[in-house]
Amino acid sequence: MSVTMTTRQVGDVTVIDASGRITLGEGSSAFRDTIKDLVTKGDKKILLNLGEVSYIDSSGIGELVSGFTTVSNSGGNLKLLSLTKRVQDLLQITKLYTVFEVFDEEAAGLASFN
Fold first, then answer.
1. What pLDDT score does 1 carry?
2. For the chain, which residues make up each domain, given as ranges?
3. Which of 19, 47, 85, 90 is the most buried (most CB within 10 A)?
4. CATH number of the domain at 4-105, please?
5. Nearest by Cα to 19 from 41, 48, 58
């Protein structure tokens, strides 16, 4: 199963709810396309909910970094929400945990944009 991305608006923050697997191929391109579409529309505050992501490979990690860079270069912020233990461990091993702002609760993540 590849990743499913749904977006919703909470105030001026766009929340992306991802579920499934972010892996080489379909999963990573769906993620990339979603981020590009949001940036093109002018969305600058993006909270990525990874609570339902069961697996992420090196290609998926690359897409997270690429998405972060794309949003940052447009003057926006990409923050992460609800990391599973596996994804959190992976971000810590790759030293990317310090790059992203990570939140356990959606309310805290949303409040961080103000």
1. 62
2. 4-105
3. 47
4. 3.30.750.24
5. 48
Q: What is the pLDDT of residue 26?
A: 76
Strands 13-22 and 4-10: antiparallel
Instruction: Select from 68, 49, 61, 79 the least CA-distant residue to 23.
Output: 61
Question: CB under 8 Å, gap of 24 or more: what pairs does 91-96 form?
Answer: 91/61, 94/61, 96/61, 96/64, 96/65
Distances (CA, A) of 49 to 21, 24, 35, 84, 110: 13, 19, 13, 10, 11
**Pair of tokens at residue 52:** 């339902």
> pLDDT for 1-41, tens place per residue?
688 999 999 999 999 999 999 988 877 888 899 999 999 99
The Cα 81–Cα 36 span in angstroms is 19
